[in-house]
Design brief:
Order of helices and strands: HHHH
Number of helices: 4
Radius of gyration: 17 Å
Number of domains: 1
Largest sheet: none
Length: 128
């Protein structure tokens, strides 16, 4: 029970930290110990914040769920959180060649994951 409490507190902290960095215009806050001034670093921090959102969400889901979660669903959740952070990066930081390229790679990856996940669910035999 204590371990679940520790994981829950750390997961909520990761979720809030990721949301704070993604949803606010500036990424300089009390949680990041360095001053970020250049555009490339801001884009990178927002992208990593999307990963923190995904990990925080999945950790909270892991604590309160008794069912097994498939790996494809985990990857798709993290991919969707990364896309969420990239969209806010476009809003606050603008468009760069790198950020647009990464965005389209992540969209392509997410579409492929979704397609393969649906295809695999249709192939499962539930008459075991």
């Amino acid at each position: 029970m204590i371990l679940k409490g520790i994981i829950l507190i750390l997961s909520i902290f990761m979720l809030l930290l990721g949301l704070l960095n993604v949803l606010t215009p500036g990424v300089n806050n009390i949680f990041i110990p360095i001053e970020i001034n250049d555009l490339d670093t801001r884009i990178m921090v927002r992208s990593l914040s999307g990963i923190l959102i995904g990990i925080g969400y999945l950790s909270i889901r892991f604590i309160f769920s008794s069912s097994r979660v498939q790996i494809g669903n985990v990857l798709l959740s993290i991919t969707l959180c990364a896309l969420f952070s990239k969209i806010f990066s476009f809003i606050y930081d603008g468009f760069t060649t790198y950020s647009v390229t990464v965005f389209f790679f992540v969209v392509c990856y997410g579409i492929c994951l979704y397609y393969l996940q649906k295809k695999r669910k249709n192939q499962l035999d539930f008459n075991l």
